[in-house]
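Question (not urgent): is this output format expected?
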Amino acid sequence: MSQQLEIEFKNLLTKQQYEQLLKDFHIHDDAIHRQTNHYFDTPQYEIRHLKSGLRIRQINDYYECTLKERTAEHEHLETTDELSAEQAQKMLNGEGFFAPEVAKRLANYDIPLDKLKVFGSLTTDRVEIPYKGGLLVFDHSFYLQCDDYEVEYESNDVIKGNAMFDAFLQQYGIKKQVADKKIARFMKALQANKKQ
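Got this back:
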């Protein structure tokens, strides 16, 4: 189990901006790795109402379950349990919950584990680059016939991280556009699909 405070800044990109950043940073195809997030909630979206998110992330043969709880703007407490492929598959099939530390955090909010269901999956092609004391991330995500692009900057200091990210956007001529978390963008797309 790991628990960490995540401080991150995000900005949406156009496809052209994303492709230009890959060129500017000399990113080759072998530096891009694919991950898939499978999102869980109860039918009443109790986790979403807490401004939190629950997911199983798969990267090749590695699986982890993470609960992200919002603690402040740009800050989330992440609680993560590593899973075996079999445990992950059982959780995805609704056959039990095998993330003990995440379960403890959910119990604090009286979230019933037996009501948790997968409501969708989102795949991201990700590039991570150490950048000025933090981590720069370029993401291309696809889900529900949507494609989107974003840049993230992870830092261990809110004020320095914010200044660094603003300077990065300015340097590369990227207009500031607040980006919702991936799970929130996924939910918007899901609701739009239901209305059609």
